[in-house]
Specification:
With about 190 residues, the chain is an alpha/beta fold. The protein has helices at about 30-45, 50-65, 75-80, 105-115, 125-135; strands at about 5-10, 15-20, 45-50, 85, 100, 120-125, 140-145, 155-160, 165-175, 180-190. The strands form 2 sheets. The protein has an 8-stranded mixed sheet with strand order 5-4-3-6-1-7-10-9.
Amino acid sequence: MTATYTFDVFSSLDGFGTARGDWGGYWGKQGPELLDHRLAQYSEEQRMVFGANTYRAFAEILAAGTEESVRDPWVTRMRNLPATVVSTTLQGPLDWPDATVVSSDALDVVARLKEESEVPLRSHGSLSMNRALMAAGLVDRVQVTIYPVITGQTGLNPIFQDAADFDLELIEHRTLDGHIQELIYRPTLHT
């Protein structure tokens, strides 16, 4: 049995993963339905997979406690899930309760995890790593949560910049708090 791998990402309508300025976590658009839904998703047994940059960003934000969103129960739950951090620059132990650093190529690591894991795999963020995994056919689901903002002037981290071309099959969708869209797709490399 092969474990399912989900690339889970937050996005502005124009495709940015974050923004500079005074937007705050979730671009200030979160509500109780989103937060409850996220907690339910992260309450399921799964293994997190992070690239080094995303791990560093999460560790820094969580340690500083500067974002209001770091106190959300789903973030606490995510931090307490087992995690694999793919990095050639980090060494353990990490400031994450159940994290393992694997110093190898992300494609090899995720292919092995998909074969060996008894629980689904999920990666929140890790944009460049997940673009490479998608191109290699290792991502089973792309979960994009779209916030009702356009960050044309302040947007950072274009989610699919320099990605390969993909056809997407919509397999789930929902509206949360009346204005946030969660879209879950099955990606297929466009040939």
